Amino acid sequence: MVGLNSFVLSTFEEDQISCTGLRIFVGNAEGLGETRKKELAKSGLMLGLRGEDDVLVIDDAAPPATIDTLITFDKGGVSSHPNHVSLLHGARAFTKALMRRHKGWDCPVTLYTLTSTNVVRKYLGLFDAPMTLLSSIVSKGSKKSARNDPDRLFFANGLSEYWAARRAMTTAHQSQMLWFRWFWIVLSRYMTLNDLKADTG
Question: Are 98 and 109 in contact (CB under 8 A)?
């Protein structure tokens, strides 16, 4: 999610928080795996990562980075794309594997999922803000992790983050810039608004 990435990375940069881009699989559709690896690195640099070493593309091995927060799609995968949906299963398996020999302890990694919406809300852009805020307030839980992480996060991109996300999508992810992607860039709420939920799955 390029829109979410632009806000998260700029927020972390302002607060001097170390950030690593992690992609679990290459996405080798149409034999473009190597191209997509390079595009991911280029996009990460455009969105504020310090260097190409901060972009990890993992096919089979365990991640060589120490992390405390993992962000992925929810069970709806935003667009119901099978690759998006499978990421939640992979993230849950990762956190369960971490805790396999540590029953009774809190997981050191907080897993957040990006909230999927219906197709109408998906293409309302900024006009979805009231509904997003209302749903966050209504469904707000009280459970916090051992690290006292919030159970809900809300991100709203400003103009500079929007343009950074747009530039990253159109120039760094050229192999994915098909004509219909422009609808996403211009109309999607995910370019400007994103809400995350702590996954308890």
Answer: yes
The dihedral built from the CA positions of residue 194, 195, 196 and 201, taken in this order, carries a sign that is negative
> Is residue 28 scored above 70 in pLDDT?
no
Q: Of the candidates 60, 62, 53, 59, which has an alpha carbon nearest to the alpha carbon of residue 33?
A: 59
How far is residue 171's CA from residue 191's CA, in Å, rounded to a whole number?
A: 16
Amino acid in the structure at residue 153: L
pLDDT in tens, 93-121: 888 887 777 777 778 888 999 999 999 99
| pTM, 2 dp | 0.69
CB 133 within 8 A of CB 91: no
Cross-strand bridge partners of residue 198? 112
Are the C-beta atoms of 99 and 107 separated by less than 8 Å?
yes
